[in-house]
Amino acid sequence: METEEVERLIESGIEDAEATVTLPRVPDEEHEDAHFAAVIVSPAFEGKTLVQQHQMVYDALGESMTTDIHAMELKTYTPEEHETVNGDE
Protein backbone atom coordinates (compact mmCIF):
# COMPACT_ATOMS: atom_id res chain seq x y z
CA MET A 1 0.00 0.00 0.00
CA GLU A 2 1.33 3.44 -0.92
CA THR A 3 1.26 6.50 1.33
CA GLU A 4 -1.08 8.28 -1.10
CA GLU A 5 -3.64 5.49 -0.76
CA VAL A 6 -3.53 5.69 3.04
CA GLU A 7 -4.03 9.48 2.80
CA ARG A 8 -6.98 8.99 0.45
CA LEU A 9 -8.67 6.48 2.78
CA ILE A 10 -8.27 8.75 5.80
CA GLU A 11 -9.42 11.89 3.97
CA SER A 12 -12.45 10.15 2.50
CA GLY A 13 -13.40 8.58 5.84
CA ILE A 14 -13.08 11.63 8.11
CA GLU A 15 -14.93 14.83 7.33
CA ASP A 16 -12.70 17.73 6.21
CA ALA A 17 -9.55 15.77 7.10
CA GLU A 18 -6.12 16.64 5.76
CA ALA A 19 -3.73 13.72 6.09
CA THR A 20 0.01 13.60 5.54
CA VAL A 21 1.34 10.05 5.52
CA THR A 22 5.00 9.07 5.48
CA LEU A 23 7.11 5.96 5.87
CA PRO A 24 9.02 6.45 9.14
CA ARG A 25 11.56 3.78 8.29
CA VAL A 26 12.88 2.08 5.19
CA PRO A 27 10.71 -0.93 4.30
CA ASP A 28 12.39 -4.31 4.57
CA GLU A 29 12.18 -5.78 1.07
CA GLU A 30 12.33 -9.36 2.39
CA HIS A 31 9.55 -8.79 4.92
CA GLU A 32 7.09 -6.26 3.60
CA ASP A 33 5.87 -4.81 6.87
CA ALA A 34 4.08 -1.59 6.07
CA HIS A 35 4.86 0.90 8.82
CA PHE A 36 3.25 4.30 8.29
CA ALA A 37 3.23 7.59 10.18
CA ALA A 38 0.32 9.98 9.72
CA VAL A 39 -0.49 13.51 10.79
CA ILE A 40 -4.22 14.14 10.47
CA VAL A 41 -5.93 17.49 10.96
CA SER A 42 -9.73 17.66 11.07
CA PRO A 43 -12.42 19.69 12.78
CA ALA A 44 -14.21 16.34 13.28
CA PHE A 45 -11.75 15.67 16.14
CA GLU A 46 -13.17 18.58 18.17
CA GLY A 47 -14.42 17.39 21.57
CA LYS A 48 -13.13 13.84 21.05
CA THR A 49 -10.57 12.11 23.26
CA LEU A 50 -7.28 11.03 21.73
CA VAL A 51 -8.50 7.41 21.77
CA GLN A 52 -11.70 8.41 19.95
CA GLN A 53 -9.69 10.38 17.38
CA HIS A 54 -7.42 7.41 16.70
CA GLN A 55 -10.44 5.10 16.47
CA MET A 56 -11.88 7.41 13.80
CA VAL A 57 -8.67 6.99 11.80
CA TYR A 58 -8.70 3.20 12.22
CA ASP A 59 -12.35 3.14 11.13
CA ALA A 60 -11.49 5.20 8.04
CA LEU A 61 -8.72 2.76 7.15
CA GLY A 62 -11.11 -0.16 7.58
CA GLU A 63 -9.90 -3.58 6.59
CA SER A 64 -6.54 -2.16 5.47
CA MET A 65 -5.56 -2.02 9.14
CA THR A 66 -5.59 -5.82 9.24
CA THR A 67 -4.49 -6.63 5.70
CA ASP A 68 -2.12 -3.95 4.35
CA ILE A 69 -0.89 -1.92 7.31
CA HIS A 70 1.42 -3.47 9.89
CA ALA A 71 1.82 -0.39 12.10
CA MET A 72 0.46 3.14 12.14
CA GLU A 73 1.94 6.02 14.14
CA LEU A 74 -0.75 8.68 14.55
CA LYS A 75 -0.76 12.35 15.42
CA THR A 76 -4.25 13.82 15.34
CA TYR A 77 -5.17 17.47 15.72
CA THR A 78 -8.08 19.84 15.39
CA PRO A 79 -7.17 22.77 13.11
CA GLU A 80 -6.71 25.00 16.18
CA GLU A 81 -4.42 22.50 17.90
CA HIS A 82 -2.38 22.05 14.73
CA GLU A 83 -1.94 25.82 14.36
CA THR A 84 -0.77 26.06 17.97
CA VAL A 85 1.68 23.16 17.60
CA ASN A 86 3.07 24.44 14.30
CA GLY A 87 2.84 28.16 15.02
CA ASP A 88 6.54 28.44 15.95
CA GLU A 89 7.82 26.84 12.74
From TrEMBL:
<dbReference type="Pfam" id="PF01722">
    <property type="entry name" value="BolA"/>
</dbReference>
<dbReference type="InterPro" id="IPR050961">
    <property type="entry name" value="BolA/IbaG_stress_morph_reg"/>
</dbReference>
<protein>
    <submittedName>
        <fullName>Bola protein family transcriptional regulator</fullName>
    </submittedName>
</protein>
<dbReference type="InterPro" id="IPR036065">
    <property type="entry name" value="BolA-like_sf"/>
</dbReference>
<comment type="similarity">
    <text>Belongs to the BolA/IbaG family.</text>
</comment>
<dbReference type="InterPro" id="IPR002634">
    <property type="entry name" value="BolA"/>
</dbReference>
